[in-house]
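hiii, so i know i said id send this last week but things got crazy w the move. better late than never?? heres the sequnce for the chain we talked about at the cafe, plus the structure i predicted for it. fair warning i was half asleep when i ran it
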Amino acid sequence: MIFTVEETALVSSFDHSNRNVALLKMAAHLKLIEDAELKELTRRTVRKLNKLTDAEFASIDFTVYDNDEEADHE
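okay and structure toks below
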């Protein structure tokens, strides 16, 4: 399954140590999101994450987004 840049960046903004943790964190925050576009992006991403196996999730490289965040703080 292919994730967009936006979906991947969204997942990386949550605890993504494993698929279940990412799903739980995103689902818990979904009700707090007021922006309609962000809410739909989150719903779509949660649906995609639900379809992945744990092994497929583990193969996604989130470090690209982690490094971008570190560079912003320098």
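btw The chain is about 70% helix and 0% strand. thought thatd interest u
miss u guys!!
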